[in-house]
Amino acid sequence: HWAATLPSLAFKTYGIKARGILGGPESGVRTFSVIYRGEDFETGELGVIPVNTALELPTMFVTPNKDASVIDDSTAAPFVTMKAISFADDSSVRFDLKSPVNKITFGAFAKASSSDVEMPYLACFDERDALIFQRDLVFGPGDFAAWQDVVSPDRRIKALVLTVSPGTDWLYVDNFTFA
Question: Rounded to whole angstroms, how far apart are CA atoms 75 and 89?
Fold first, then answer.
């Protein structure tokens, strides 16, 4: 049994094998992936993310189908703090992860101009871009900000698409964590 701290590994998949000190047999290759624990958008430049243009961040690419923006807003702390992604009305934003995961948690802050506006929803896609599932975002009664847990125990999530309906005043997302 051994341990090593390797603080400067790049964000990718590695293969390692071991050999006994006294010339014993070499082990089989074991693979592991280095992933970031989260994304808080703090490295993003404030301003508009142009339509169908991917904004590269340390953990993901963010691509809107209408203008989206990197904003600075902490109104809904702890869900949205400092830099966040803001959605245009009636739009979708795709978050392509650089490394697939089984669980994503993120903060969401939304407001609609009336109570009959459809709830924002998400869709998760696997490494082959096949739909895993789709569901509405969940907010408590009277709450406009909440943590969203997205879990896929059987298939790894490679992309998350968030969609807002017409009449949505805003949707801000921030503080993604991965497992």
Answer: 19
Query: What is the gyration radius of the CA atoms in the chain, in angstroms?
Result: 19
Alpha-carbon span 149 to 14, nearest angstrom? 28
Closest CA to 176 of 40, 63, 64: 40
Q: What is the separation of C-alpha 108 from the centre of its chain, rounded to a whole number of angstroms?
A: 12
pTM higher than 0.90 = no
Query: Which amino acid type is present at position 69?
Result: S
pLDDT tens-digit series, residues 45-73: 999 999 999 999 999 999 999 989 999 99
- Given a cut of 70, whether residue 11 has pLDDT beyond it is no
37 vs 42 pLDDT, higher one? 42
Q: Which two tokens stand for residue 45?
A: 């430049």
| 20 against 124, higher pLDDT | 124
Residue bearing tokens 């997205």: 150
Residue 172: count other Cβ atoms within 10 Å of its Cβ: 21
Q: Which two tokens stand for residue 31?
A: 């693979």
